[in-house]
Amino acid sequence: MLSAHGLGCIRGERKLFAGLDLQVGPGECLHVRGENGVGKTSLLRMLAGLSAPAEGEIHWRGRPIGDVADEYHQDLLFLGHHDAVKQDLTGMENLLFAARLDGAPLPADQALAALGRLGLRGREDLPVRCLSAGQKRRVALARLLTRKAVLWVLDEPFTALDAGAVEVLSSLIATHLADGGLAVLTSHQAIPIDQVRALQL
Amino acid sequence: MNALVAIIRRDLLLAMRRKSEVLSALFFFVIVTSLFPLGIGAEPALLHKIAPGVIWVAALLSTMLGLQRMFAADHADGTLEQLALSPEPLGLLVSGKIVAHWLVCGLPLVLLAPVMGLQFNLGTGDLGILMLALLLGTPVLSLVGAIGAALTLGVRGGGVLLSLLVLPLYVPTLIFGAGAVYAQGSGQDAGGHLSLLGALLALAMFFAPWATTAAIRIAIE
Fold first, then answer.
1. Nearest to B97 by CA among B79, B116, B78, B119
2. What is the dihedral of CA B41, B42, B44, B45, to 10 degrees?
3. B86-119 CB burial, b ≥16 within 10 A, e <16
4. With A154 labelled, which of A29, B11, B55, B167 sits at a CA distance of 20 to 30 A?
5. Nearest CA in chain B to A74
6. Residue A110 to residue A114: CA distance in whole angstroms
7. What is the C-alpha separation between A63 and A86, in angstroms, rounded?
8. Beta pairing, strands A55-60 & A63-64
9. Nearest to B85 by CA among A184, A80, A25, A1
10. pTM above 0.90, yes or no
């Protein structure tokens, strides 16, 4: 469903990669691997439609993502390097506002359940500024549960997470794939999921 | 439409949690406008003459103080990327942020201006026109400022660049805003100036969100 043909990326004067083809179908997870600075994040940002590829095309359900931007944004959930979590709001407020800005208001009990699932029970009403880096990451990851997206594009989702949270996140991804979802992610650690395909940059 | 209300409410809530940033811009306005009568001394006729200019310039500079924050925090923590990827149109969300900026930085100036105007020996009629002119003019300042704030996103030393970029664009608002109060004070009709301010507002409402959205897309690329 998500496919890219002949992708090329240029950062400044340097060519990071060129002629990259990839294809991800329902129930598949693409694990983008490679050394630091090889262009993993750039690739993910291109796939999300945040930056235009220097060459090549990206298609969603067979059509260029630029042509179906509305539909694509509906289907896509992108979590980047930055958590997009507001320090001055509580975890609960962050999640509720994020949902409403996506045009899909969320009942409070669902938000509460999502935060609970990620091990933040009892900390929903603390400003995020009072949480640790890993807990802040969990607040951002709670959107995986509340936002109904088909395609997950996750940049280093396992960073700063403890062993328990890594397990929860892995099971979330596995469930998502089992439901016919797609995922593209970067990570320096092995991902404990069966349906993962690796892409070495 | 829900998303528009949501982003305004979110930005107001964030402003409430960081009161010092909002209040410092307001205090700046109050202090600058209070320094002039103290420095010039008790000369009612002179104070009355300079009042519109001083109050408008203070309003301009005070709005500038809050401009840089309009998108910078959202840019730094990745929220801007999420807004760009939201199923809701980015232009709508950007408009919401501009409205929130005006509610926090512009509207209080409109409400404070009559109090400040009393120090300058302005009459009731003058104060009414001053408020009306600010009510029409301060949204223009937020709208035009938003373009500058978006263009200087991620630029090192963007604050100075932002001032250089935006202040010249504020000139028409300053001229017609202060002009309205001058006209009223010298017994002429302020209607013409106010109509032009209204026209500026209509123009800015149409173009500024569009230009700001384009600038933000470039900034997050």
1. B79
2. -50
3. bbbbbebbbbbbbbbbbbbbbebbbebbbebbeb
4. B11
5. B87
6. 6
7. 35
8. antiparallel
9. A80
10. yes
In angstroms, how far is CA A171 from the centroid of its own chain? 15
Q: Which of A194, A156, A201 is nearest to A177 (CA)?
A: A194
Domain ranges of chain B: 2-220
CA distance B173 to A32: 52
Nearest CB to B88 within list A76, A93, A101 = A101
Q: Does A105 touch chain B (CB under 8 A)?
A: yes
- Per-residue pLDDT tens over the stretch B75-123: 999 999 999 999 999 999 999 999 999 999 999 999 999 999 998 988 8
Looking at this protein, which amino acid is placed at residue A174?
A
Q: How far A25 CA sits from the closest chain B CA (Å)?
A: 21
Q: What is the pLDDT of residues B158-204, one digit of tens each?
A: 888 999 999 999 999 999 999 999 998 888 888 999 999 999 999 99
Q: Which CATH superfamily hosts domain A2-200?
A: P-loop containing nucleotide triphosphate hydrolases (3.40.50.300)
**Given B76, B81, B86, which is nearest A101 (Cβ)?**
B86
**Is there a contact between B79 and A103 if contact means CB atoms under 8 Å apart?**
no
**Closest among B29, B28, B22 to B112, alpha carbons compared:** B29
Per-domain boundaries in chain A: 2-200
The answer to whether the CB atoms of A83 and B76 lie below 8 A apart is: no
CA distances from A186 to A27, A156, A183 (A): 17, 5, 10
Cα torsion angle, B97, B103, B105, B106, sign: positive
B73: CB partners within 8 A, 6+ apart: B14, B79
List all residues 6 or more positions away from A86 whose beta carbon is below 8 Å from its beta carbon: A93, A94, A97, A128, B10, B14, B77, B79
A84: exposed, middle or buried (C-beta count within 10 Å: 0-12, 13-18, 19+)? buried
Rounded CA separation B158/B162 (Å): 6
Residue type, A41: T
